[in-house]
Design goal:
Structural class: alpha+beta
Distance between the termini: 106 Å
CATH class of the largest domain: Mainly Alpha
CATH architecture of the largest domain: Orthogonal Bundle
Shape: elongated
CATH superfamily of the largest domain: Transferase(Phosphotransferase) domain 1
CATH topology of the largest domain: Transferase(Phosphotransferase), domain 1
Number of strands: 16
């Protein structure tokens, strides 16, 4: 029987040992298989096994080339079998007469956790949840308290007829981060907001931030004194750094523009009496502004040419002198022109502006109104009373949009004309275009590039 020695040569970290057996091409790779077997009597120096660790010696009955045949005696396990157990050599068979029994059933390991640790962990989790709930509750009531203070301050200013001042952070909260856009005009964009669940507002973010904040606040102070049933009230403002905003009452039914339809559209047309009431109400609101405040207090002293790109939504209502100083200076009569265009849109149920492209637009002179008054164009009316109202609104509108400001009536005269019961007392202004072939004339203007 031959005794073999087994060595662990993983510490060598080389593909081959420096001995004769390791010189062959197909010899054992000591990196992938670092276990080396030799005869027990071989020299470790000659085999280059100094850096290897001897694992054990094993008696082999037969050793053939490329094959190692091992054999060992079977222990007598009768005693262990009687106990329903397995057996094995004790101390790896150093004493062939000694065996030991063992249970082959796999034992499940259990980890014992002290109850005190379980209670402590559970208590910590519950305490954390309670603290989170308390923190959330605190934040909720603090925000609610801040909102209530803001509303109380607003109501206090409202009763004192003074606009409330908001920070830019307040404006972002009021508009929920500017999520709902209501419209856009020449001077800014309007967003929907709410001061509370009961108070809805319209917030206009102004485009221009030129000028001192003090001047803006002074102008807001003047606007805050405007209180008229036909004028939207200024509730507050923002002058925070470069940010400028105006906060107004929100009318949830929308603007008049969304209710202007052709008279023959019975499902949506408001009716001639209602249109007359709206026209008179708007005129009285302008009259209040002109009498009590005037243009000088509400317009900047450094008013320049309006940018066509920014003002494309309101071009149809702008007087010629607003677009070009060649027509004269901006005055109260500029408001009259805008009002006249609105009246004619109400009569015709259509806008007087067409955007042909991003660079050009057409202001459509409503020559068809003259044709209407001369009987060449007909619109839908229910009775003679409606016809009188339509004719009156058309005549007043034409007077208001005269090219020369001096030819336009004052707003006081406009109110008197609208409230008169006799339309035959109103004379039709001259038609600046005497064309028998064209139903309407257009005036094309190039946009001023910014």
């Amino acid at each position: 029987m031959t005794t073999k020695s087994f060595f662990n040569c993983s510490s060598v970290k080389k593909p081959h040992l420096r001995n004769y057996d390791q010189t062959f091409k197909d010899s054992q790779d000591m990196i992938t298989c670092p276990i080396y077997m030799s005869n027990a009597y071989d020299s470790v120096l000659q085999l280059d096994l100094i850096s290897c660790t001897k694992m054990f010696d094993l008696n082999a009955s037969t050793l053939e080339i490329g094959k190692l045949i091992l054999s060992w005696p079977n222990p007598n396990c009768n005693k262990c079998k009687e106990k329903g157990m397995k057996c094995k050599w004790k101390n790896n068979g150093s004493n062939k007469d000694e065996i030991e029994c063992y249970d082959c059933k796999k034992k499940v390991k259990t980890i014992h956790i002290p109850r005190s640790l379980i209670f402590a962990a559970t208590g910590s989790i519950l305490l954390g949840l309670v603290l989170i709930a308390l923190f959330k509750t605190h934040l909720y009531f603090r925000k609610k308290e801040e909102d209530q203070l803001r509303v109380d301050k607003f109501l206090e200013d409202y009763r004192a007829q003074k606009p409330a001042r908001f920070s830019y952070a307040d404006i972002k909260r009021i508009t929920s981060g500017f999520t709902e856009k209501l419209g856009e005009g020449a001077h800014g964009t309007v967003f929907k907001g709410k001061l509370s669940t009961q108070i809805l507002v319209a917030v206009k973010m102004l485009n221009s931030t030129q000028g001192e904040g003090k001047e803006f606040i002074n102008e807001v102070g003047i606007m805050g004194k405007i209180h008229h049933i036909n004028v939207v009230r200024l509730l507050g403002f923002c002058a925070d750094g470069i940010h400028r905003a105006l906060v107004y009452n929100l009318f949830p039914n929308g603007s008049l523009q969304s209710y202007i339809f052709q008279p023959d559209n019975k499902d949506h047309f408001l009716g001639w009496e209602k249109l007359q009431q709206i026209g008179v109400g708007i005129a009285k609101g302008i009259e209040y502004l002109h009498q009590d405040f005037g243009l000088a207090k509400l317009c900047s002293k450094n008013l320049s040419i309006v940018s066509m790109t920014a003002a494309k939504g309101t071009l149809g209502y702008m007087a010629p002198e607003v677009l070009s100083r060649n027509f004269g200076n901006v005055s109260l009569k500029s408001d009259i022109y805008s009002y006249g265009m609105l009246l004619l849109e109400m009569v015709g149920g259509r806008k007087n502006v067409e955007m042909s492209s991003a660079e050009t637009f057409h202001v459509l002179y409503p020559e068809w109104i003259h044709n209407l008054l001369e009987g060449d164009v007909h619109i839908h009316v229910e009775d003679e009373g409606d016809a009188k109202i339509a004719k009156k609104l058309a005549i007043v509108g034409l007077w208001c949009i005269q090219w020369q400001p001096i030819n336009r009536p004052s707003i006081k005269a406009v109110v008197q004309m609208l409230e008169t019961g006799e339309d035959n007392q109103l004379t039709v202004p001259p038609n600046p275009f005497h064309s028998t072939t064209l139903a309407r004339r257009t005036f094309q203007m190039e946009v001023i590039q910014e």
